[in-house]
Amino acid sequence: MASGEGGSGGGQRQDEFNKRQGTLNEVLHYAIENTPTDREPEARGPLTDEKREFLNKVFTDMLRDEVKEMKEHVEVLKRIQDSETEEDQEEKEERLEALLDLCETIDNAQDFLKVGGVDVAMALCRDPSSEVRWRALDLLAMTVQNNPVNQNAMVQRDALKLFFQLLDNDGAYKVKVKALYAISCLVRENELAQDGLVREDGFSSLMRAMQTDIEKLQIKAAFLLSALVWEQPKFNETLHSMGMVQQLISLLQTEHKMYHEHVMSAILHLVSQHPGCHADSLHPDLNFRGFLEERTGELNGKEEYLEELEYCQKLTALYSQAAQSDSRTGADR
Q1: Per residue in 119-152, pLDDT tens?
Q2: Which of 14, 171, 179, 191 has the least C-beta neighbours within 10 A?
Q3: Which chain positions lie within coiled-coil regions (predicted)?
Q4: Cα-based torsion angle of the residue sequence 318, 320, 326, 330 in order, rounded to the nearest 10 degrees
Q5: Inside any domain, residue 85
Q6: Is residue 181 within 8 Å of 220, Cβ to Cβ?
Q7: DSSP class of 39
Q8: What is the spatial distance between Cα 155 and Cα 152, in angstroms, rounded to a whole number?
Q9: Domain co-membership, 192 together with 293
């Protein structure tokens, strides 16, 4: 396989090596199973249909030209991307699924970018069919995951703007979920994409996702927010200026949900790392310390909520330490 744009290290070829190695291992396993173990050669009958089919598949996989296959799929998608016939819609779905399988390795994902696949997949994110839209998003997410070359190329193509529009406005549940998945794959551990997230007011979109009644969106949006604030302290000031802590505390004060664990984690980071967020959390109207006491009582003894309970306890301890420190400061005066 060709290396990615701008060069790629040998480590990026590991997935491709593992894939080829797996095929060779299949052949070796077959040979061992079908080799006589005694000294005298054993008369072997003709291959069964099952064994012949297995060997044909193995050697076909070894010899296939995956870049050529990707080019063919992309060319067909380019040709039919504006068509709305039932036949062409099914063709789009099948081609996108085939490309998803091909793009599981980093090398193939980077070759997908080179053959123009990213551009056609982005165009298909606006297809009239939601079945095509979510598959295009799934494919794009696959091609950028842990892949800085493709991540940067997607940021330059304003992919985040497209993904957030779909997350906020698309009427199809699965499209929303896949849009959020694509956002997560694009922004994790990529500063260029993270800067783009701030420009696109992405944190507001994540908050809106948490405010929906779609549990999967709530969990994924809360998890991404928590992961980003722990990964990048530079977001603290942006989130403080948005009043994010107050909004997150308001979310917690609704009916208890599984995603509240990640919300509590994000609050813990912001309150412990940013004085302004700490002060915001203590606004009298929120009564957050009282809420923490209640929530701790609710979660005690429930094994499935151990992490959320730990966050509650850490926040309670943080506020107690701050209050003691303030008392000592006042006494010194």
Answers
A1: 999 999 999 999 999 999 999 999 999 999 999 9
A2: 171
A3: none
A4: -170
A5: yes
A6: yes
A7: S
A8: 5
A9: no
Kindly report, residue by residue over 288-317, the tens digit of the pLDDT: 999 999 999 999 999 999 999 999 999 999
Q: CA 30, CA 8: separation in Å to the nearest integer?
A: 34
247 and 187 share one domain: no
So what's the pLDDT on residue 48? Answer: 79
Domain assignment present for residue 142? The answer is yes
The per-residue pLDDT for range 164-197, each reduced to its tens digit, is 999 999 999 999 999 999 999 999 999 999 999 9
**58 CB contacts (<8 Å, ≥6 apart)?**
23, 26, 27, 30
In the block, residue with structure tokens 């603290």: 236
Which residue, 183, 200, 217, sits at the end of a domain? 200
- In eight-state DSSP terms, residue 2 is P
- Structure-token pair, residue 177: 């979920």
C-alpha span between 118 and 156 (Å, rounded): 12
Number of domains present in the structure of the chain: 2
- Average pLDDT for the chain: 87
Cα angle 106, 163, 9; round to 5: 20
- Residue range of the domain that includes 167: 66-200
Question: Scanning the structure block, which residue is given the tokens 């985040």?
Answer: 160
Pair 74, 194 in one domain:
yes
Give CA angle at 102 (172, 184), nearest 5°.
45
**26 or 165: which carries more pLDDT confidence?**
165
Q: Do 163 and 281 fall within a single domain?
A: no
256 and 320 inside one domain: yes
